Amino acid sequence: MGKNRLEAFSDGVLAIIITIMVLELKVPHGAALDALLPLLPVFLSYVLSFVYIGIYWNNHHHLLHTLHRVSGAILWANLHLLFWLSLLPFATGWMGENHFAALPTAIYGLVLLMAALAYLLLQRLIIAAEGEDSVLAQAVGRDWKGKASWLLYVVAVGTASRWTWLSQSLYVLVALLWLIPDRRIERLLQLQAQEIP
Amino acid sequence: MGKNRLEAFSDGVLAIIITIMVLELKVPHGAALDALLPLLPVFLSYVLSFVYIGIYWNNHHHLLHTLHRVSGAILWANLHLLFWLSLLPFATGWMGENHFAALPTAIYGLVLLMAALAYLLLQRLIIAAEGEDSVLAQAVGRDWKGKASWLLYVVAVGTASRWTWLSQSLYVLVALLWLIPDRRIERLLQLQAQEIP
Amino acid sequence: MGKNRLEAFSDGVLAIIITIMVLELKVPHGAALDALLPLLPVFLSYVLSFVYIGIYWNNHHHLLHTLHRVSGAILWANLHLLFWLSLLPFATGWMGENHFAALPTAIYGLVLLMAALAYLLLQRLIIAAEGEDSVLAQAVGRDWKGKASWLLYVVAVGTASRWTWLSQSLYVLVALLWLIPDRRIERLLQLQAQEIP
Amino acid sequence: MGKNRLEAFSDGVLAIIITIMVLELKVPHGAALDALLPLLPVFLSYVLSFVYIGIYWNNHHHLLHTLHRVSGAILWANLHLLFWLSLLPFATGWMGENHFAALPTAIYGLVLLMAALAYLLLQRLIIAAEGEDSVLAQAVGRDWKGKASWLLYVVAVGTASRWTWLSQSLYVLVALLWLIPDRRIERLLQLQAQEIP
Q1: Are C83 and B50 in contact (CB under 8 A)?
Q2: CA neighbours closer than 13 Å in the CB half-sphere of residue A108
C-alpha cells in the first residue's frame, strides 16, 4: 500500500467530516432573528470542531511525511484514528443542540481524547517502523504538547458534570495549543538538510 | 506541506459543499405540480450558490497556481476561506426556504462577504510570500473586481431589510462579474513566457 | 487549469452524487417486511440512477482523454454538466417515493435530457478546441447514440403523463444503450497508434 | 481508462460511504444519558460496518495492485461492487435502529453477501485479464478465506430469523477473519522480486 493512497483516503475522509458537520446546522423554519439565535451554540461548536479537524489534517500530514512504508498495522491505526474523528460531527451536534450541557460536553471531550490516543498509537507505530533515531522520533521528542492535551482532555471530561464552562475552556485551550502547526518536524528536516553539505 | 495536497483537500471540500447544497432541495411528499412549485426559490438559490462555488473553485486554482511553498499561515488562511464557504449551503437553504425573505438574504450576503474577505486575506499572504513583483501580485494589480465585490456585498447586506430584491440583484451581478474566469494571471503567464525567448 | 484537476474535481462530485443518492433510501421505522417493501420503488430508481452516473463517469473520462488545454468555456461547460447531474438524486428520490408517478417521471427525464444536452455542449466545445480532424471528432462521428438518447428522452418526457410505464422503459433502454462503454475513441486511438509504424 | 482514476474514484466513494454511515447516528434531543443509551446498537453496527468498509478498501487496493489494463468489464464489475457497498449505510442504520432485529440482520448479511460476490466477480475478471499464472491468480490460490466468508454469510442470513445472535456473531467472525490484511499478494510479490536476481 503506497503512502499516497493512504494520504488521499485520509484527506477524503477528513474533507467529508469537516463538511458534513455543517449539516447539523439545520435550516430553521422561521425567517426572523429569533429563529436564528438558538443556532448560535451549534455554530460555535461547529467552529471549534472545524478547527480541530483542521489541526488533525495538518498534523496528520506532518506525521506521514517521514513515513516510507505502510504496514498493515499502520494502515489500521490510521483507520482507527479516522473512526474517532468520524464521531466528531455527532458529538459536535449533540453538544451544540443542548447548549453545551454537561453530558454532551463530557462525550465531546471523550471523543477528542480517543482521537488523541489513536493519534499517539499511530505515531508510535510509525516511529517503531522508522526507528528511534528517525526524523519523526527526534521531532516528536518528549511530545509535551501531546501529553498536555491528553491530560487536559481527561480533566475536561472529569469536570464537565460540575464546571462545564471549564471543560469548554479547556477544549478551546488545547485547540489554541495546536493551532500553531507542528513545526518540529519541518525544523528537523531543515537541520538535516543543512547537515548534509 | 506540498501545494498538491492543499489543492486536493480544497477541491475535495469544495466538491462536497457544491453537492451537499442540493440536499436542501428536499424531496416533496406529493407528486403534483403544486408540491414542486414551492421548491422554486430553493432551486434558484441553489443555482446561484452553485455558480458561486464554481467561481471560487476556478479562482482558487489560479490563486494557488503561482504559489511555491505552503506556510502555516497560508494553510490556515485557506482553511478559513473553506470555513466561510462551508456555511453557504446553510445560508442558501435558509434563503430559499423563506422565499428570499429579508434577514436570510442579508445573512447570505454576509457569508459571501466573509468568504470574499477570507479570499483577500489568502491572496495577501500568498503575495507577501511570493514577493510584490511576483506574477500573482502583477496579475491581481489593483484588484478592482475584488474591491467592487466587497462594496456590492456590503450594500446588499445593508439594503436587504428594505429592498430585498436589490440585494438579490447585486448577488447575481457579482456572480456575473466573476463568471468570466480571471484571465489576468493566465495572460501575464503568457506574457512572461513570451519575454523569455 | 490543468486537465488533471478538472478530472479530479469532476470525479469527486460524481462520487459524492452517486453516494448521496442512497440517502434518499430512508431507514424505515419498523423491522418487518412491510416496512421494507414500500422502499422497493426508491431502490429501483436508485439502481437506475446509479447506472446513469456510472455511464457519465465512464464517458466523461473518454471525453476528456483527448483534451489538451482547458479553456474557461470548457471549464464552465463541465460545471454545467455537473449541475444537472447534481439534480439527479432529487429527481430519483421524488420519482421513487411517489412510486413512479407521472410528473416525477417526467421531471426525471427532463433532468436526464438537460444533462445529455450539457454533455453535448461540452463535447462540441472540446471538438471546437481540438479541431474537426481530432481523434474525438472522428470518434464521435455522427453521434447516433447521443442523438437517439435525446430523442428518446424527449419522447419519454412527453408520454409520461399518459403512458408512464413507457417513459420508464425508455429510461432503461437508453441506459442499456450506453452501458456498453463508448469504445469508439479507444478504437480510433488504437488505429492511430497502428498507423504510426 | 487508467488504473489510477479507477482507484481514485473507488477511494472517493468508499471514503464517502464510511463517513456517511455516521449520519445514521442521529443527534438525540435530550442531553441525559437515557437519550444516548438507545443509540448504542446503532453505534455498534456502525463500528462493524466501519471495519467492513476498511477491509474492502484495503483488499480492493491489493486487488488492483497487479492490474495493468482496465477493460469495460472490469470497470463495471468495480462499479457493481461499489453499488452493494453503497447499500451498507442503509442496512447498518436499519439494523442498528431496530436493535439487531431478525429481518434487518438478515438484510445486512444479504448486502454483505452480495458485496462479497461482486468482489469475487471483479477478482475473476482481473485474473482472466492478467492470466492464470499472474501474481494475483497465484496469490488468491484456492481463496479459502473468500469461500469461508460466503458460506458464513449464507448461514448467517439463514439463521437470522431464529438465532439472530448467531448471525451477528458470524458477521463479527468474518470481519475478524479479514481484519488481518491479505498478505498473500504482498508475499508473492516479494518472492517474485527475489527470484529475479
Answers
A1: yes
A2: 34
CB contact under 8 A, B29 and C94: no
Q: Is the pLDDT of residue A197 over 60?
A: no
DSSP type of residue B163: -
HSE, side-chain direction, 13 A CA sphere, residue D64: 24
Q: B191 or D26: whose pLDDT is higher?
A: D26
pLDDT of residue B116: 94
d(CA B54, CA B175) in angstroms, rounded, equals 10
pLDDT digits (tens, 9 = 90+) for A31-70: 888 888 888 999 999 999 999 999 999 888 888 877 877 8
Write the DSSP assignment of C92-113 as a string of letters: HHHHHHTTS-HHHHHHHHHHHH
Query: pTM of the prediction?
Result: 0.88
What are the residues whose beta carbons fall under 8 Å from the beta carbon of A77, sequence distance 6 or more? Answer: A118, A121, A122, A125
What are the chain A neighbours of B24 within 8 Å (beta carbons)? Answer: 27
Q: How confident is the model at residue C15, as a pLDDT?
A: 93
Residue D188 has a pLDDT of: 63
**Location of C-alpha cell 472529569:** A158
DSSP A123-172: HHHHHHHH-TTSHHHHHHTT-HHHHHHHHHHHHHHHHTTT-HHHHHHHHH
Q: Cβ–Cβ of C90/B27 closer than 8 Å? A: yes
| Residue C168 in grid coordinates | 420508464
Residue with cell 513583483: B133
Distance from CA of C82 to the nearest CA of D (A): 16
**Chain length of chain C:** 197
**Any idea how long chain B is?**
197
ipTM: 0.86
Kindly state whether A189 is in contact with chain B, defined as any CB-CB distance less than 8 angstroms: no
Side-chain-facing half-sphere of C137: CA atoms under 13 Å: 11
pLDDT of residue A190: 61
CB D79 within 8 A of CB C54: yes
Percent with pLDDT over 90 in chain C:
39
Among C20, C57, C62, beta carbon nearest to D9: C57
Q: Which pLDDT tens digit goes with each residue over B145-163?
A: 888 889 999 999 999 888 8
**Chain B contact for A32 (CB, 8 A cutoff):** yes
- Predicted confidence (pLDDT) at residue C197 exceeds the cutoff of 50: no
Q: Which long-range contacts (CB under 8 A, 24 or more apart) does B66-69 make?
A: B66/B126, B66/B130, B66/B134, B66/B135, B66/B136, B66/B139, B66/B185, B67/B3, B67/B126, B67/B129, B67/B130, B67/B136, B68/B3, B68/B129, B68/B130, B69/B3, B69/B129
Q: Which three cell numbers stand for residue D85?
A: 457497498
pLDDT > 80? residue B115: yes
